[in-house]
């Protein structure tokens, strides 16, 4: 327990909170800037099992933000590179790498195994698919996205608030190779890890029904209240307490 003594000292956390983390499984889809940062802090916090999903290999242009991949990893599968670093940090971690693109078939099985799903993707097609599977299976989904100095995060709790389709009925315009500052991805990835830890331990208030937007240029946060859409094609049939 010495490894985790400082977080166990947080009021309400204690040994029970640590045991909840150790008994949990988190699925991280995408091992880019968001997924690397979120996975690193989840492993450091003592989450028992991580499932990392990414079909891509490391490129030199990834290294400004994808902190689990180093120059010697260029050409390796991202999940292999990430697993190596995470186990160096926490050898007790159980970690599995899935070298596949996310699709309806494999997500059904992987989301079903997880207690929380973390968005480390870079496109709304995959995010919408994750959202649909999580809503269908009733699994918490932490959404994050970044561009330049800007980042956003929200927490989807099926049946407790709006889903991603409620917030973004149509995908925002996407760019090929969008600009990203590494520290922006690090910031949002850390916030995703924090939301995940809160859900797993039962501490704090998650970002349900709230979209948190970070502007690094002006160094300020803005919170936007969001509600479930009665006509949402994904979650309108589920009970919502809002």
Question: Can you describe what's shown?
Answer:
The structure is a single chain. With 242 residues, the chain is of the alpha/beta class. The chain has one domain (2-225): 3-Layer(aba) Sandwich (Rossmann fold). The protein has eight helices and eight strands. Strands 3-2-1-4-5-6-7-8 form an eight-stranded mixed sheet, sandwiched between helices. Helix 5 crosses helix 6 (124-137). The protein is globular. The model has no long low-confidence stretch (mean pLDDT 96).
CATH H-tier superfamily: NAD(P)-binding Rossmann-like Domain
Number of domains: 1
Secondary-structure content class: alpha/beta
> What fraction of residues sit in β-strands?
15-25%
Biggest β-sheet description? 8 strands, mixed
Q: Order of SSEs, N→C? A: HHEHEHEHEHEEHHEE
Shape: globular
Task: Write a brief structural summary.
This protein is an alpha/beta fold and 242 residues long.
Q: How is the secondary structure organized here?
A:
Elements: H1 5-8, H2 14-22, E1 25-29, H3 33-45, E2 49-53, H4 78-89, E3 94-98, H5 104-113, E4 116-119, H6 124-137, E5 141-147, E6 150-156, H7 164-167, H8 182-201, E7 210-215, E8 220-225
Parallel strand pairs: 1-2, 1-4, 2-3, 4-5
Antiparallel strand pairs: 5-6, 6-7, 7-8
Helix pairs in contact: 3-4, 3-8, 5-6
